[in-house]
Amino acid sequence: MKTVLASRSIEIPKGVDVEVNSREVTVTGTRGTLKRNFKHISMDLRITGSKETKQYIRVDLWFANRKELACVRTVCSHIDNMFIGVTRGFLYKMRFVYSHFPINVTLTGDTVEIRNFLGEKRVRKVKLLEGVEYTRTADVKDQIELSGNDIALVSLTAAQIQQATNIRHKDLRKFLDGIYVSEKGPIPSPDDE
Asked: Are 107 and 134 a contacting pair, CB within 8 Å?
């Protein structure tokens, strides 16, 4: 059965400028600008409200079936993540796990190099995606931090680093070595702590 109208609106936070032009959303904040294209979903995207009071982005979907209805909330979540990205940014923390051979991770230019994984001579290389910053945590041993504005790029870089240390042809219950995401979310603001 088709739903006549599915509608959802998200409040635009203070200090964030939003531009919607034919399902192409551009969000500008203190940390930079993010752009995302939603042209693959046929829905109405518009800014409602006035600049003096509160502004909202309204997502409308007419005569949609069950699968198309799910897209409304998904688009709202994507836009919400863009708001967080341009105001606070996203941080992924990754820990090295090893039982015998210590994993050695270095940054060369914009490439993360993983050496001595399971004692192998092969150097695993993962290219940092655009807008993703790599830092080695100073106070915690065997931990790296990936941060950036775009959650898709930061999480994709973390996933590529984790997949570079996939173990093959061995018992996965015994060989648990690798680099795993230990913590993820928005960058904590100083008043959160």
From this structure: yes
Backbone angles phi, psi at 174, to 5 degrees: -95, -45
Whether 26 and 33 have beta carbons less than 8 Å apart is answered as yes
CA distance readout (Å), 85 to 14, 34, 90, 120, 126:
14, 8, 6, 37, 23
Q: What is the pLDDT of residues 90-145, one digit of tens each?
A: 999 999 999 999 999 999 999 999 999 999 999 999 999 999 999 999 999 999 99
Between 190 and 23, whose confidence is greater? Answer: 23
Reduce the secondary structure of the chain to three states and give it as a string. CCEEEEEEEEECCCCCEEEEECCEEEEECCCCEEEEECCCCCCEEEEEECCCCCEEEEEEEEEECHHHHHHHHHHHHHHHHHHHHHHCCEEEEEEEECCCCCCEEEEECCEEEEECHHHCCCCEEEECCCCCEEEECCCCCCEEEEEECCHHHHHHHHHHHHHHCCCCCCCCCCCCCEEEEEEEEECCCHHHC
